[in-house]
Specification:
Elements: E1 4-9, H1 13-24, H2 26-33, E2 37-43, E3 59-60, H3 66-69, E4 75-78, H4 85-96, E5 101-103, H5 106-123, E6 127-128, H6 139-146, E7 152-158, H7 161-173, H8 177-186, H9 194-198, H10 201-215, E8 225-226, H11 234-242, E9 245-256, E10 259-270, E11 282-289, E12 293-300, H12 304-320, E13 346-356, H13 361-371, E14 376-381, E15 389-396, E16 399-400, H14 401-412, E17 422-426
Parallel strand pairs: 1-2, 1-4, 2-3, 4-5, 5-6, 8-10, 10-17
Antiparallel strand pairs: 7-9, 7-11, 9-10, 11-12, 13-15, 13-16, 13-17, 14-15
Helix pairs in contact: 1-12, 4-5, 5-10, 7-8, 13-14
Bound molecules: L-homoserine.
Length: 429
Amino acid sequence: MTALRIGIAGLGTVGAGVVKLLRAQVHAIAARAGRPLIVTAVSARDRTRERGISLEGLIWHDDPLALAADPNVDVVVELIGGAEGMAKTLAEATLAAGKPLVTANKALLATHGAALARAAEAAGTSIGYEAAVAGGIPVIKALREGLAANRVDRVAGILNGTCNYVLTTMREEGRGFADVLADAQTLGYAEADPSFDIDGVDAAHKLAILASLAFGRRIAFSSLHVEGIRNITPLDITFAQEFGYRIKLLGIAARTEDGISMRVHPAMVPLNTPLANVEGVFNAVSLEGDFSGPVFLQGRGAGEGPTASAVVADLIDVARGVRIPVWGMAATALDPAPALPIAQHEGAYFLRLMVVDQPGVLADVMAILRDHGISLASMAQHGRRPGEAVPIVLVTHETREAAVSGALAQIGALESVLEPPALIRIEPQ
Ligand code: HSE
């Protein structure tokens, strides 16, 4: 049978990994795909860089766009990255040429996924993006195919390995955020711009993709609520343990009575749940289908091997002639409603205050909570230092976020409250 001829744009860690994987497993992949998969053409910035792969016999294009037009290329793999610029232009040109696109580019899909899906459908071709979310975990396949018969009510994931590494190491070694982040950068976990990781943007790109698939919604990145982990302190981590939680950066999309909630933020996760025990650079996704019941996937979210594994799985689908709607259904059938505003979120909250240890402070705080209709489940104070700063933790019962933020604005303005209060949402699993 005729080979599937692959053009790769971007020969960084992942691109070189895809070439290595296709060569290492050449026979098994051909058997599974029913035809050989061969790389015919590549494009990257620097032809001479040492990548651990031979480029002999491959067509080299200085301009990645040439891959879309090259008659020796049946499918284009976009590994350039970024939501705009060449990645977007190449994706559009590939689809316009009627060729399938395989990409690891979460920012591109989260930002332009609706338009790209329309372009793919108009051209009668497909977009494979297993590598865009949680690297080696086949979560796109799980949602788009394996769970296609279900109504999904909730998706919750640890979608950024850098943040999970930082939070895990802070807890295990009792170190501060900035110190541990520097390690993560040295180890090469963080994105080129680490703020994408630690401010939650990378996880939000991935959540937008998962939410679109899970709930049949037009991708709506700008309506997500996004917070990162910069403000998490060792003190919060210690209190979390005391209350039976672990702090994780979660991406959550859930069906509520008022609409679909989509948010990325640090969360208190009960210690006895699977997500709480996903540590270090590992990613995980917890799904709930109405007929399937709970499904839990865990694995490596980044790196050469896991990401190449996901890219090649998509290429095998292309070789087999599998074509699934980009977002699991026709682009025109997707619901365009934005995510629920965070002010409408209902849940329990962990609130930490730094207050002056003096009579009446707690009474003032309690009065404000009472005035906002917020009921407390428990509280703790560590230490006794009359006239000095002490931390106080308050855990609320289920309440609406608008009430909590109103109360915190007033509490933060009290003279006896020395720092802006910390708020961490509690997520039941
Ligand atoms: N920088 C990402 C992470 C990996 O730390 O999980 C690629 O999405």
